[in-house]
């Protein structure tokens, strides 16, 4: 059975009539795409794998690259000119459905026409060739760029932003803000630094360099720079040989699945973890300035907790005067079916800071309390302090998300995909275990034995997919990923598990 719906889709200033969906129903029961996506009139009709991955052309390019650049973490070498929408191409002509999307970083598809127009605009070109040092020499329209872009989607209650270059940068500067805020409150508003503080700071000693801590959670990932790395707990390879701060880690809830069958056990686990958090805050050897947490632990294995847990965590931090930092670097910008994942929690008061990067294509942290802005200039500062070109690009991304209602699309597609995976899990219970991510958009994962072999097998059936933690398969499709893409993915997953 085949059906076809059409609608007019605006790309930049151009309207095109593109097939909404034309689906062929196969024996597997999944409907697969046979014509173009409504968001991209030139998107591939499906995966195509004609050589091994890497193929001969890619292998030659990898050898050349390896002579000047470390390729040991290489996944695949890509042809970005030929990649379109949800599909990524390699140099050998293979075309893969990409549900990893540059480690969750592509929001609205490869070679999105609106982003192409945004990046090609005179405004962007001006900042590319005349890059401003934003702290010293911002352009006259920097406030307008922030208000019309980054701040237009600010989490509720957070109306200011510090812009940065990458996720780790956003995290590190949020930690600095937390420490400066803590000492500002302890010292008293308007009290100057003492001569002892000034002198000891230059020796990396107290009181100028105070003994303060950031609390994170077991299995957390917050980046690979020095400060952020001290709060990263996902894999030893990230941390080995690197000096670290003596900062505490608390237990993140280890939930049992399916959730509906383990309500009481999971409730007890979350309460245990909250009690541990409060005990650490009370007993740690030095004051804890902030608690940092991911709404869904991503690199650590796609670990979830309930809104009740996060509400409890917010209550604890407020009760003890500890700042609450929510790391939305990977979960933000629509991936969970809401623009910010912490919107699922229903908090009575907002987080103190929310970090962002990845799908935003820029980075930084939001905040609302003006006391989080340092009391003197140059305390939170670097040459670039972000990049106006990337801020303009985020504005373009926001425009595409709003124009196409992509957060809603992701919520609906995620529900459809989760339902299909749940059905697959019932037929392959030994291979799809601990399915998680219900009602969290396309931010879905499961555990599978022999995970790394499965990821490689998926390439042979035309899907680029990623893992997290020790055994999790994680899905990180783009916001333009739709139900017909989901059907195709389900079919290819089943094909890989059958092989």
Automatic annotation (TrEMBL):
<comment type="similarity">
    <text>Belongs to the class-III pyridoxal-phosphate-dependent aminotransferase family.</text>
</comment>
<dbReference type="GO" id="GO:0005739">
    <property type="term" value="C:mitochondrion"/>
</dbReference>
<dbReference type="InterPro" id="IPR049704">
    <property type="entry name" value="Aminotrans_3_PPA_site"/>
</dbReference>
<keyword id="KW-0808">Transferase</keyword>
<dbReference type="Pfam" id="PF00202">
    <property type="entry name" value="Aminotran_3"/>
</dbReference>
<dbReference type="GO" id="GO:0009450">
    <property type="term" value="P:gamma-aminobutyric acid catabolic process"/>
</dbReference>
<dbReference type="GO" id="GO:0030170">
    <property type="term" value="F:pyridoxal phosphate binding"/>
</dbReference>
<protein>
    <recommendedName>
        <fullName>4-aminobutyrate aminotransferase</fullName>
        <ecNumber>2.6.1.19</ecNumber>
    </recommendedName>
</protein>
<dbReference type="InterPro" id="IPR004631">
    <property type="entry name" value="4NH2But_aminotransferase_euk"/>
</dbReference>
<dbReference type="InterPro" id="IPR005814">
    <property type="entry name" value="Aminotrans_3"/>
</dbReference>
<keyword id="KW-0032">Aminotransferase</keyword>
<keyword id="KW-0663">Pyridoxal phosphate</keyword>
<dbReference type="InterPro" id="IPR015421">
    <property type="entry name" value="PyrdxlP-dep_Trfase_major"/>
</dbReference>
<dbReference type="InterPro" id="IPR015422">
    <property type="entry name" value="PyrdxlP-dep_Trfase_small"/>
</dbReference>
<dbReference type="GO" id="GO:0034386">
    <property type="term" value="F:4-aminobutyrate:2-oxoglutarate transaminase activity"/>
</dbReference>
<dbReference type="InterPro" id="IPR015424">
    <property type="entry name" value="PyrdxlP-dep_Trfase"/>
</dbReference>
């Amino acid at each position: 059975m085949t059906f076809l719906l059409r609608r007019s889709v605006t790309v930049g200033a151009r309207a095109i009539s593109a097939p909404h969906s034309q689906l062929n129903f196969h024996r597997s029961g999944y409907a697969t795409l046979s014509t173009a996506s409504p968001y991209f009139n030139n998107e591939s009709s499906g995966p195509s794998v004609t050589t091994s991955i890497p193929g001969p052309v890619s292998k030659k390019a990898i050898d050349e690259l390896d002579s000047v650049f470390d390729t040991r973490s290489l996944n695949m070498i890509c042809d970005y000119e030929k990649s379109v929408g949800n599909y990524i191409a390699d140099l050998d002509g293979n075309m893969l459905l990409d549900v990893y999307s540059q480690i969750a970083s592509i929001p609205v598809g490869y070679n999105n026409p609106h982003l192409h127009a945004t990046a090609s605009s005179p405004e962007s070109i001006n900042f590319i060739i005349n890059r401003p040092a934003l702290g010293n020499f911002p352009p006259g329209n920097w406030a307008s760029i922030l208000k019309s872009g980054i701040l237009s989607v600010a989490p509720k209650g957070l109306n200011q932003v510090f812009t940065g270059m990458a996720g780790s940068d956003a995290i590190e500067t949020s930690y600095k803000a937390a420490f400066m805020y803590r000492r500002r409150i302890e010292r008293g508003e308007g009290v100057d630094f003492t001569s002892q503080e000034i002198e000891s700071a230059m020796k990396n000693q107290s009181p100028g360099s105070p003994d303060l801590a950031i609390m994170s959670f077991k299995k957390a990932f917050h980046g690979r720079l020095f400060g952020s790395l001290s709060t990263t707990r996902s894999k030893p390879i990230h941390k080995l040989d690197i000096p670290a701060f003596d900062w505490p880690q608390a237990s993140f809830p280890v939930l049992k699945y399916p959730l509906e069958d383990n309500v009481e056990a999971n409730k007890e686990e979350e309460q245990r973890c909250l009690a541990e958090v409060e005990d650490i805050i009370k007993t740690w050897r030095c004051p804890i300035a902030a608690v940092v947490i991911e709404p869904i632990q991503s690199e650590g294995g796609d670990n979830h907790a309930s809104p009740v847990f996060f509400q409890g965590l917010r209550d604890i931090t407020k009760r003890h005067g500890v700042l609450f930092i929510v790391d939305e670097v990977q979960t933000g910008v629509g991936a969970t079916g809401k623009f910010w994942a912490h919107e699922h929690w229903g908090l009575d008061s907002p987080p103190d800071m929310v970090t962002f990067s990845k799908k935003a294509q820029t980075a930084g942290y939001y905040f609302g309390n003006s006391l989080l802005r340092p009391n003197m200039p140059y305390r939170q500062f670097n040459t670039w302090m972000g990049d106006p070109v990337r801020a303009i690009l985020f504005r373009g991304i926001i425009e595409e998300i709003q124009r196409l209602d992509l957060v809603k699309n992701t919520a609906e597609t995620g529900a459809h995909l989760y339902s299909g995976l749940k059905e697959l899990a019932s037929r392959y219970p030994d291979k799809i275990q601990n399915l998680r991510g219900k009602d969290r958009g396309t931010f879905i994962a499961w555990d599978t034995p022999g995970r790394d072999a499965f990821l490689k097998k998926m390439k042979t059936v035309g899907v680029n997919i990623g893992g997290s933690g020790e055994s999790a398969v994680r899905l990180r499709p783009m916001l333009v990923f739709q139900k017909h893409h989901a059907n195709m993915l389900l079919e290819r997953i089943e094909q890989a598990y059958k092989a």
